[in-house]
């Protein structure tokens, strides 16, 4: 009986040891999110004919009582517009952005925030982690938008689209600041 008990304990220990040889990564506190234009353009069921024109994939960091712009995100430094992987924007049709024609495709969206304005950057390199892999030689366009004050505090970074007659405005807001980026969609 002692041999059977010893064997059972040994097997259980071996199984437990084997199962603990790896660890799952902890949950990320910067939640991944998507923004689509038009807002309800994601296919929700088989046969759905909805088609997005623009899609953004980004992570949503929270301020957690910290000063964001000018501190956590220093003025004058390239920012990935979010957390973790760099924010990516996909245009399903050709667009005009910052006065320049942009071909349909997927790009990385960066910004250089300042107190009164942000320099927006559309970059052709995708699948980068934060601004660390940023390569200025792969910029497609840089243009400036005005930084505006929010009337309500925004704890967690948010990105939305507002419809416009010729396309949409991309709105990026966090803490007490937001910017509007006009996008014209070519038909």
Can you tell me about this structure?
The chain is mainly beta and 187 residues long. Helices cover 10% and strands 45% of the residues. Strands 1-2-3-6-7-8-9-4-5 form a nine-stranded antiparallel beta sheet, with no helix packed on it. Strand 8 and strand 9 form a beta hairpin. The longest helix has 18 residues, at 2-19.
Number of strands: 9
Low-confidence stretches: 5-9, 15-20
Quote the average pLDDT. 86
Overall structural class, as computed from helix and strand content, comes to: mainly beta
- SS strand fraction: over 45%
For the biggest sheet, the summary is: 9 strands, antiparallel
Distance between the termini: 81 Å
Helix content: under 10%
Could you give the order of strands across the largest sheet? 1-2-3-6-7-8-9-4-5
**Rg from C-alpha positions?**
23 Å
Helix and strand string, N-terminal first? Answer: HEEEEEEEEE
**Rough outline:** globular
Counting H and I runs of at least 4 residues, what is the number of helices? 1
């Amino acid at each position: 009986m002692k041999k059977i008990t010893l064997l059972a304990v040994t097997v259980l220990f071996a199984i437990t040891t084997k199962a603990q040889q790896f660890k799952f990564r902890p949950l990320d506190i910067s939640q991944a999110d998507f923004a689509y234009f038009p807002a309800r353009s994601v296919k929700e069921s088989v046969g759905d004919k909805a088609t997005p024109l623009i899609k953004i994939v980004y992570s949503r960091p929270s301020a957690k009582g910290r000063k964001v712009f000018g501190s956590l995100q220093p003025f004058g430094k390239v920012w990935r517009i979010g957390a973790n992987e760099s924010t990516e924007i996909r245009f399903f049709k050709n667009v005009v952005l910052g006065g320049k024609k942009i071909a349909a495709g997927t790009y990385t969206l960066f910004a250089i925030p300042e107190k009164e304005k942000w320099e927006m950057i559309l970059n052709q390199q995708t699948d980068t982690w934060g601004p660390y892999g940023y390569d200025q030689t792969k910029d497609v366009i840089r243009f400036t938008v005005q930084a505006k004050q929010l009337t309500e505090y925004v704890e967690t970074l948010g990105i939305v689209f507002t419809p416009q007659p010729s396309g949409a405005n991309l709105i990026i807001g966090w803490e007490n600041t937001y910017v509007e980026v006009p996008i014209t969609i070519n038909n």
